[in-house]
Amino acid sequence: MLRLMAFALILSFGCRGTEAAAAGVMKIAVTSPWLYEVASFIGGRQAQVRALSVWNEAGNTVATGRPRAGELVIAFDPEDAARLKIGAQNKNLRLLYQKRPMSEAKMRAAFFDPAMLPFIAQEIMKIMAAADQRNYSYYQRRLAEFQSRIDSTMGIGRHLLAGVNILDLTGAEGTWVRSSITGVVRPPESVWAGWLAGDSVALRAALDEASRRGWLLLLDPWTPEAIRSAATAYPYRLTLPLPPKDTEFFVFLHEIFTIIANRVKTGAQRAKI
Predict the structure, then answer these.
(1) DSSP percent split of the chain into helix, strand, coil, nearest 5
(2) Rounded to an integer, what distance in angstroms lies between the CA atom of residue 25 and that of residue 155?
(3) Is the pLDDT of residue 189 over 90?
(4) Which residues pair with 47 in a beta bridge?
(5) Contact at 8 Å (CB) between 29 and 67?
(6) Apex CA 185: angle with CA 180 and CA 189, to 5°?
(7) How far apart, in whole angstroms, are the C-alpha atoms of residue 183 and residue 163?
(8) Three-state SS for 124?
(9) pLDDT at 82 over 80
(10) Directed axis angle between helix 249-272 and helix 136-160, to 10°?
């Protein structure tokens, strides 16, 4: 009986300790699922991060929640906050930028750019560390690990996709693939603009040439509809998915390489038949 009572007391104190630790964790709400991907990594065990919007099937963000009392709120800029009806006077609001330095499309691609990701992560780290100064060194370590994970994941891509040739028709995710391997061709901006302006002849000619050379046509949820429609005529293509909910961002970045490698393998097998 005494042993049972002692065990019950230990369990009780253990639960209270867990509750106390959870209560001490910084609570953060971010306006975008993009910000969630980075903030949740930098916050680690010291922060509880949730997104106030999610992606729909088209890759657009849709608001799903509102900030709660006591939450630190992180937004890209005042316009991003206003989109979710978060006023500039909100004392818990923190901004990455006073004015977003690039268009929405380029900002989306920045989350797949290994050169830009550390800068975004650093700005988020500064906000977290300023709000939770006692854990400053922890957030610094998470930032260093963030950079290390970028490098190691890119190394996996170079190994998996060595010698693969791809025509990048993505709206964002191709930035990650182009940064990791050399066999990826992206149409110049002037050519891309011509396709979107209705030059279907030039678009079909480019897709025909890529197909003739055996290149994989790579698309994603943000590929413009005109290009997506034209690409459906070519069987050797792949549309990358949105980042899955509740999956660590680096797991997804690794999955991009795996998905492409599997598609290339399937395409090669079919070519032999």
Answers:
(1) 55, 15, 30
(2) 34
(3) yes
(4) 26
(5) yes
(6) 110
(7) 6
(8) helix
(9) yes
(10) 0
Q: Is there a shared CATH topology between the 21-154 domain and the 161-272 domain?
A: yes
Q: What percent of the chain has pLDDT over 90?
A: 82
CB-based contact 168:128 (threshold 8 Å): no
Cα–chain center distance at 77: 18
Q: Residue type for 118, please?
A: P
In DSSP terms, which residues pair with 167 in a beta bridge? 185, 217
Q: What is the pTM (predicted TM-score) of this model?
A: 0.86
Q: Which CATH number fits domain 161-272: 1.10.8, 3.30.70, 1.10.3470, 3.40.50?
A: 3.40.50
Residue with tokens 């977290």: 128
The one-letter code for the residue type at 193 is: A
Which two structure tokens, joined as six digits, stand for 261? 């490698």
Query: Which CATH superfamily is 21-154 part of?
Result: Nitrogenase molybdenum iron protein domain (3.40.50.1980)
